[in-house]
Amino acid sequence: KGKADLTIIGMLIVGGDAFDFTADLITPVIVKAGSRVDFSITFNPDEPISGLEKRTARLQISNNDVDENPYMIDLVGYVELD
């Protein structure tokens, strides 16, 4: 937990399968020191997937943190079709 407020300026999903993922956080948002903000990532492939296949992307969170801007989170989604 940080000691200063964090401003999340924007969120961008990048990578080859980026269009298969969406984020629901509306930015900008200020996260007060010692608190948190919740958001969801939805995996919804736009093309059929055969068998067990994974899709990958990366969530880029632009913010005012001098050490970790942008903050990166790897995203992986799996679909198994019968």
Describe the protein's topology.
Layout: E1 6-14, E2 21-23, E3 29-31, E4 41-43, E5 52-63, E6 71-80
Antiparallel strand pairs: 1-3, 1-5, 2-4, 5-6
What does this structure look like?
The strands form two sheets. A four-stranded antiparallel beta sheet has the order 3-1-5-6, with no helix packed on it. The protein is built from no helices and six strands. By secondary structure, the chain is mainly beta. 0% of the residues lie in helices and 49% in strands.
Keywords, separated by commas or semicolons:
single chain; 82 residues
Biggest sheet details: 4 strands, antiparallel
Helix content: under 10%
The computed structural class is mainly beta
Q: How many runs of DSSP E, i.e. beta strands?
A: 6
The fraction of residues in strands falls at over 45%
Q: State the end-to-end CA separation.
A: 43 Å
- State the shape: elongated
Task: Please count the helical segments.
Answer: 0
As residue ranges, the low-confidence spans are none
Instruction: State mean pLDDT (0 to 100 scale).
Output: 90
Name the quaternary structure. single chain
User: Which radius of gyration do the C-alpha atoms yield?
Assistant: 15 Å
- The order of strands across the largest sheet is 3-1-5-6
The succession of helices and strands, N to C, reads EEEEEE
Please provide a brief summary of the model:
This protein is mainly β. The protein has no helices and 6 strands.
